[in-house]
Specification:
The complex is a heterodimer. By secondary structure, chain A is mostly helical. Chain A contains seven helices and no strands. In chain A, helix 1 packs antiparallel against helix 3, helix 3 runs parallel beside helix 5 and helix 4 packs antiparallel against helix 5. Chain A is flat. Chain A starts with a helix and ends in a 7-residue tail after the last helix. The C terminus of chain A is likely disordered. Helix content of chain B is 77%, strand content 0%. The chains are: A mainly alpha, B mainly alpha.
Chain lengths: 207, 672
């Protein structure tokens, strides 16, 4: 079971990370476009469409990845104080109540949305000769499927947690605030911080 | 099981909300399967209450919103026509999701976030803090002031509160504690300073607000600049006053801490002349044995940099000020720059509760921007005008024929100030200051230039926020590369260029992964909330709230105080993303009823949400700081340190409310 969980986690992560490179492409593309417009006086009519497509694809496809790394914002007021079992129970109920119906509906609706677009070979109407937009619309159900798969994994995680009383492990990933890495970056060691206590303690403010 | 106080409080709150919900739910309507208009409205409020409960339970908010939106939207459709309900809700959902996917305002978010991660990893904060605290050594409370300034600049460029607070906790806190600063003051300066990044543009918060409220991000950026600077200035002022009144809380730096070790060249020359400029000139005229003339010349060039830049600026200003008056034909510019955007913004925007006219408003605003920028530039700062006026060929052809106008008085005043400061700088430039200046040159100025370039090009209409963000991201790559190269050259072993490239690759990879996660978080929240708010509007919940608020008979001032107070309270349990994305759609339509400018409201909200990071017990900033501070620094001390700064934030909000021109002056000047 654990293996299957990690397998799906890995797939979500791989997909999310693969698509996350779009941000680099997007940055360079827009920079080039700005340069091309102002310096070379040669703007491209498709640039805007491509920008939007890259952005939309980027965040949609990263949805499952973010879920796998529990990166979606959640209200932390009470949640953090709960026992893992309580956390898992609440999550389990809400995954079934909100997540599955919501994401399923999105995927289902997205499928027909994209299918219609494909049937008419829809192109973007932002400029006169816009690029085809139907592949972009297909991203919607595709991202939904990945998200749904990841959601099922999370549900299984909840069940395991309820049984065992502790959250099953997740794969490591880059953290927004990775304290150890930041410490290394500015050359601060734990001993240095510990030594600082000397300046704090004499003030009589220790616990 | 020992339950904490917070849990009891939370549960009580939830129980109250749920009880109210149960009481007001139109059960009768469910029983006979017929929901009237008022029943639906009650359902809308029920939905709002439930969402608060569900968010407090801690489920990922995006999916809570999505699931609830679908269910309640379906109920709303079903009450009208049960046969069509399924299809309608699916259509609504997919349209809303797609409108977020193709949103031309939100696209700037990943780009700015990417830029932030890159700058954070460029690793220049250490240098930045050191050079700033040396250059501010004479100011009372120098270290705390330097901390706030560093935070403000670094947070502006990165926008990541957690990282800034952690880094400053690692760098500034030890420095301040060692210098004998009180724990409270140090902690307060770090946490308050670190949060400035969400207010001072280019900030993601303002983009999210702009997309939600249908306010032009460009105007928000122009508007938030001065309130942000004002808040930072108030912090600095507070620290200086405290340091003056109670020196034991922030003792001045000792003489040895102010000294900078001089490099051999300066060491040698400093014996001959106190002034660096004179010394270097002297060394060029009659060479010192053992000193390469080239390096002396290089030093001289660096020393002369301020003089050179002031001269260039003055010359450019003169050129701009005396340029013949030209009716600037901006049509070319609009086509080149704003055309695509102007069309776009008018097209489907965020799709969140936009009051009618707002979308069109912001769309229309993009268009006059270049014009406004050009005319404003002609009036105030001619430097950008030269750039702004280049594309249209009409200007270029018209220029040579007309005579130059005499320079106006303001130019001569600026000229005098420029020359005066030039003399002052040259006179003050001793060897110590030269060293500090060189440090600033490698840490402070690159960041400042980058921020000013990004902001300036947005505010003056040269680029859309998206483009500026992308170019800023590119600048971030360059910055990270250069700093890593410098670092790689200083550490022995390995080829510096290869090492830099490997490093840079790692940085870009990490940054893009983080960007993907952060933008997925924000944008999926948008997907969820746009479905949610559509259902809320369908149920008529908005209408009920509006009717209720209007029935209270509030004056505008009372309404503003109430709304800001609610946002302040919401900042306690929720994050700013949730507050803006979920609750702004409820507030925004009310603004028109009270005659409040959504732009102004946005600035107040941005200022207000600063407190969300500092208000215990969920103050993220405090926990980040606690994570890297010595064992004996308690959370209570950190909270106590944050309190005065929270007070300053409240004062800043009041100031902004009483003098709206602080925020509205710049946008009005530029986009009228």
């Amino acid at each position: 079971m654990q293996k299957l969980l990690l397998r799906i986690d890995k797939i979500s992560t791989f997909v999310g990370q693969a698509f996350s490179w779009l941000i680099v492409a997007l940055t360079f593309m827009i920079t080039w476009e700005v340069f091309s417009r102002y310096a070379l006086d040669h703007p491209h009519s498709w640039a805007f469409d491509v920008m939007i497509i890259m952005y939309g694809t980027l965040f949609m496809m990263a949805g499952a990845y973010t879920l796998a790394k529990s990166g979606h914002v959640r209200g932390d007021v009470l949640y953090g104080f709960f026992h893992p079992r309580t956390q898992a129970t609440i999550d389990l109920i809400l995954y079934i109540l909100f997540f599955i119906p919501g994401v399923f509906a999105l995927t289902y609706a997205g499928y027909f949305f994209a299918a219609e677009s494909l049937a008419i070979r829809e192109t973007s109407n932002i400029t006169a000769e816009g690029p085809p937009i139907y592949p972009f619309k297909m991203i919607l159900p595709l991202a939904g499927i990945f998200l749904l798969a990841q959601g099922i994994v999370e549900i299984i995680r909840c069940v395991i947690c309820i049984r065992q009383g502790a959250w099953p492990s997740r794969e490591e990933d880059v953290q927004e605030v990775d304290v150890d890495k930041l410490k290394e970056m500015v050359h601060v060691k734990d001993e240095d911080i510990a030594r600082l206590d000397a300046f704090v303690a004499p003030k009589g403010s220790s616990k | 099981m020992k339950i904490r106080k917070e849990l009891w409080f939370g549960f009580t709150l939830m129980a109250i909300i749920l009880a109210a919900v149960l009481f007001y739910t139109p059960w009768a309507g469910f029983v006979d399967g017929h929901l009237g208009h008022d029943d639906l409205g009650a359902l809308g409020l029920l939905m709002l209450a439930l969402i608060v409960v569900a968010i407090m339970l801690g489920f990922p908010t995006a999916f809570t919103l999505m699931g609830m939106g679908v269910f309640f939207g379906w109920l709303a459709y079903r009450s009208v026509n049960p046969a069509l309900a399924n299809q309608q809700i699916l259509d609504l959902m997919v349209q809303r999701a797609y409108s977020v996917m193709s949103n031309d305002v939100l696209i700037a978010i990943p780009l700015f976030v990417f830029m932030g991660y890159l700058v954070e990893r460029a690793n220049l904060i250490e240098k930045l803090f050191r050079s700033l605290h040396l250059s501010l050594a004479r100011v009372p409370g120098a270290l705390a002031v330097a901390t706030i300034v560093t935070c403000a600049i670094f947070a502006t460029a990165t926008g990541i509160v957690g990282a800034v607070v952690t880094l400053m906790g690692l760098l500034a806190l030890p420095a301040m504690l060692r210098a004998g600063y009180s724990v409270q003051l140090s902690a307060g300066a770090i946490t308050a300073g670190g949060c400035l990044g969400i207010l001072i543009p280019p900030s993601v918060l303002l983009i999210v607000y702009g997309a939600t409220a249908g306010v032009s991000v460009v105007k928000l950026y122009a508007g938030a600049f001065f309130p942000g600077v004002m808040l930072a200035a108030l912090y600095v002022l507070y620290v200086i006053v405290v340091a003056k009144l109670k020196p034991h809380l922030a003792p001045p730096l000792s003489e040895s801490e102010r000294q900078v070790p001089l490099p051999p060249l300066s060491e040698q020359l400093s014996g001959r002349h106190r002034n660096a400029l004179a010394g270097l000139f002297g060394a060029l005229r009659d060479p010192v044995p053992g000193l390469a003339k080239g390096s002396v010349f290089g030093q001289l060039l660096v020393t002369l940099l301020p003089a050179i830049s002031i001269t260039v600026l003055l010359v450019l200003m003169y050129g701009g000020a005396t340029a013949p008056p030209v009716a600037v034909d901006t049509s070319g510019l609009v086509q080149a720059g704003g055309g695509i955007v102007a069309e776009e913004t008018a097209a489907p925007m965020s799709g969140l509760q936009e009051p009618p006219g707002e979308g069109a408003d912001s769309g229309g605003l993009k268009e006059p921007e270049p014009e406004g920028a050009a005319s404003a530039a002609a009036a105030a700062t001619p430097a950008p005008k030269a750039e702004a006026a280049t594309p249209p060929s009409a200007t270029a052809s018209a220029t040579p024929a007309r005579p130059r106008v005499p320079a106006p008085t303001w130019f001569w005043i600026t000229f005098a100030i420029g020359v005066g400061s030039l003399v002052l700088i040259s006179w003050m430039m001793n060897w110590q200051r030269l060293e500090i200046f060189k440090m600033l040159l490698t840490s402070f100025f690159p960041l400042a230039v980058m921020i000013i370039a990004v902001l300036g090009s947005i505010v003056f209409g040269l680029a859309t926020p998206t483009e500026a963000a992308a170019v800023g991201g590119f600048g971030g790559v360059v910055l990270a590369g250069v700093y890593r190269y410098i670092a790689a050259r200083q550490t022995p072993g390995g080829h510096p260029i290869r090492k830099t490239l490997v490093d840079l690759g790692g940085i870009i990879k990490e940054s893009s992964f983080l960007t993907a996660k952060t933008s997925a978080m924000v944008c999926w929240l948008f997907v969820g909330s746009s479905i949610f708010s559509a259902s809320f509007a369908l149920l008529g919940g908005q209408e009920i709230i509006e009717r209720w608020v209007l029935s209270l008979g509030l004056t505008t001032v009372q309404f503003m105080i109430l709304s800001q107070f609610i946002i302040f309270i919401l900042g306690w349990p929720l994050e700013w993303t949730e507050i803006i994305v979920i609750f702004m759609p409820i507030f925004i339509p009310l603004l028109a009823k009270f005659g409040v400018d959504p732009l102004f409201f946005g600035l107040l909200v941005a200022l207000n949400l600063q407190t969300a990071f500092l208000s215990p017990p969920v103050a993220m900033a405090a926990f980040y700081l606690k994570g890297v501070s010595p064992r004996h620094v308690t959370l209570n001390q950190i909270f106590a340190g944050m309190m005065p700064f929270m007070g300053i934030q409240v004062i800043a909000i009041i100031l902004l409310y009483v003098f709206p021109q602080i925020g509205l002056w710049l946008p009005q000047l530029l986009y009228k």
